[in-house]
Amino acid sequence: MKTFSQLVASLANEQGREALKGMKRGIEREALRIDSNGHLAKDPHPKALGSALTHSRITTDYSESLLEFITPVFESIPELFDELNKTHAYTVQNINGQYLWPVSMPCFVDDINNIPVADYGTSNIGKLKKLYRTGLTHRYGAQMQIISGLHFNFSVSDKLWHRLYEQSDKASSLKDFISESYFGLIRNYRRVMWVLPYLFGASPALCGSFLSGNENKYPFKKTGKGTLYLPHATSLRMSDLGYTNKEQSSLGISYNSLSEYLEGMKKAIRMPSANFADIGVKVGEDYRQLNDRVLQIENEFYSPIRAKRVSLLDEKPSEALARGGVEYIEVRALDINPFSAVGITEDQVRFLDLFLLHCLLSPSDSLSDDGDAELEENLNAVIISGRKPGLILKRNGHEITLEAWLLEMLEEFESIADILDGSGSKEYKNSLDLWRGAAIQPSKTLSGQILNHFVDEHADQSKWAFALAKEYNVYFSGYELSDDVKAAYELETESSLKAQSEIEFRGNQDFDEFLKDYFSYLG
Questions:
Q1: In sequence order, what DSSP letters do the residues of 137-173 get, joined into one string?
Q2: CB 281 within 8 A of CB 291
Q3: Strand pairing partners for 244?
Q4: Cβ atoms within 10 A of the Cβ of 16, count?
Q5: Nearest to 296 by CA among 319, 321, 271, 313
Q6: What does DSSP assign to residue 320?
Q7: Rounded CA gap, 290 and 125, in Å?
């Protein structure tokens, strides 16, 4: 097996640069709709945005109030952001003066029972999607489900795969080699995923209403009237206060190969849960959840990275992977960047390119239980105390400071940046230099910058975030969309509503029978 340096050297020519630059990217950004008081909007999903069930770019996640913007796949970063800006602008211009909440942790919520669960209409698939979310409410509470995040979808070019395959031992087919390599990327990502909350974590604070009087183990400090924060935290969204699932801690799903991963998922979706059984599935005439397994469906598996393939009609995620192998990976460990109107910057995307290519091109041994425990300890330490001076992490059982480890990695990233930039650009080099500064000075991380904005003023995060929401609202309200772009979004709105109506018109199967058929694979 070739080393990282050897593989990078083999790509240090014009053909290698072309193969590397053929990366494809997509973004899924979540954002709460809020009202003129900075509180959660409780009205239904705006009809001007089309059907959340069938719209290709604008949908909802857990709540009617939690919008999700989905881009197509792009090779060009500027084109990706142009699309993201247009979708945000069209949305803001069609939500009746409401705003988009610009941070991951929720705004003030007076009564969690008033958080509206997303509604997808009267079809059986629409009912299933809503019932799944109702089940999440009973299992984990509604508050956790309105945390916003950003997912980054990433794949490399066919040209790169062919070059890497030619340098491999060719012990498997190209298709299997690609899946094996993506799982190697995933294992390396898990080993160093603490880098992302350290640099890009943007939730060091939360509104006191989020805890709703529940006890927690953290020594929060208070600023303003009700903002709680941890001085060195990076991403409370990724802590056990945020989007986590303690029931899944014993699943032990392996990332050592596609076959082991699929086998683990198969066991997980069949595993009963005593806690969830206590909730009940159908009580009287009302469903409370889809089933009482640890996972209602595969989407409930909370992982900071996923192996993905575009599914065919009615195909489940693991079935798609089993059919065609891994097509791309989905990075899920990203907070919303409040300093960007669309929740992420081009510099972050270029850093992610370097980070993920480094994970792909580096040797990747199998992960053991000890390795899993070490990476979890590192991640938790960075989430809660990442900006603590001299923070010590573990690497293969040996202690190393966060700063030393990160600077070592950034040095290796530079060799990839040099190839991607070529002789006529410094975009990747400049992005790397920007985030190298945060490795040396924790105050330059996103979480450090955020706390500086309101803690020093003894102010509330909500006031600061609402001011940003208004600023971005002005920006997108004035964002000029061409007549052709407006017409395209309006056509998508109309087509999506029509598609939902057709699905509802065609469906006549009893919902109980539909669920029975849907979960027949569970036996």
A1: HHHH-HHHHT---EEEEEE--HHHHHHHHHTS---S-
A2: yes
A3: none
A4: 18
A5: 271
A6: H
A7: 12
Please report, for the chain, how many H helices and E strands are present, in that order: 19, 14
Contact partners, residue 183, CB within 8 Å, separation at least 6? 255, 256, 257, 258, 261, 307, 326, 364
Burial of 320 (0-12, 13-18, 19+ CB in 10 A): middle
Q: At what angle do helices 461-477 and 446-454 cross, to 10 degrees?
A: 110
Transcribe 324-353 into DSSP letters.
H---EEEEEEE---TTSTTSS-HHHHHHHH
CA angle 373, 376, 378 (to 5 degrees): 110
pLDDT band of residue 521 (cuts 50, 70, 90) is confident
Q: How would CATH label the architecture of 4-522?
A: 2-Layer Sandwich (3.30)
Integer Cα distance of 87 and 342 in angstroms: 10
Report pLDDT digits (tens) over 86-144: 999 999 999 999 999 999 999 888 888 889 999 999 999 999 999 999 999 999 989 88
Asked whether the predicted pLDDT for residue 247 surpasses 90, the reply is no
Domain ranges of the chain: 4-522
CA distances from 210 to 228, 399, 463 (A): 10, 35, 16
279 vs 291: CA distance, rounded Å: 10
What is this structure's pTM?
0.97
